[in-house]
Amino acid sequence: MNLVALSAFTDNYIWMIDDGRRALVVDPGDSAPVEAALDARGLELAGILVTHHHADHVGGVDALRPRLPAADPLPLYGPRAERLPEPCTRVDDGDLVTLMDLRFEVIDVPGHTAGHIAYLLRDGLPGAPDAGPVLFCGDTLFSGGCGRLFEGTPAQMHHSLGRLAALPGSTRVCCAHEYTLSNLRFAAAVEPGNGAVADHLRWCEHQRAAGQPTLPSTISREREINPFLRSEAPAVVRAARDHGAPDAAPVTVFATLREWKNQFR
Asked: Which residues belong to the active site?
């Protein structure tokens, strides 16, 4: 099976999995790149997975709906607790979604929005050159960063990121935005002595200069470079305390980092 990042808007990625005949897409904020990819490859749309309700993730759903097969349940899945284009099959933490003979585990990851979910393909993609699980995490986890807290609390997001960080290191991380360069510049400000951040930043700059995505990342890489997964690392704690964290509790450090990132330029 093939895993492809379809570019949308300025920096969105709509992830597509296809087997040469059918395809599913994740977070189609815009229908145009999806329809172009389906038509160019001669693919039928087998299903849609949605992580949260923001328009740049659901804006293309209704235009794509006529391409979906008639089935019960409808192969359009989204979080149980969020406002989504209807009709939609609702899923929650621990549910399993089967599309194209692939089994996706639903993980509850509130923080960016109150009902945000992620989808984990724990068995990976059959025949893919990169073995290991595949994670579609929307706007919860970015390479080198995490989503803003529009509806959730720091404690919720910290817990959500902890759940994702605990996945196998080989897990491929399919984020929904190309924010990696700006995130890594912030990570370098937090941990200037982190050589893994510097090395990955150079690689990502080369990728972007060549017009290539920096994604997918991996969970093992994010544990090394992402300050939001490193709120117990001594250097990260020191940086947070220097930027006003009242104590060294991991949630406090995380909240301070998130506020610092909001203002970082």
From this structure: 52, 54, 56-57, 112, 139, 177
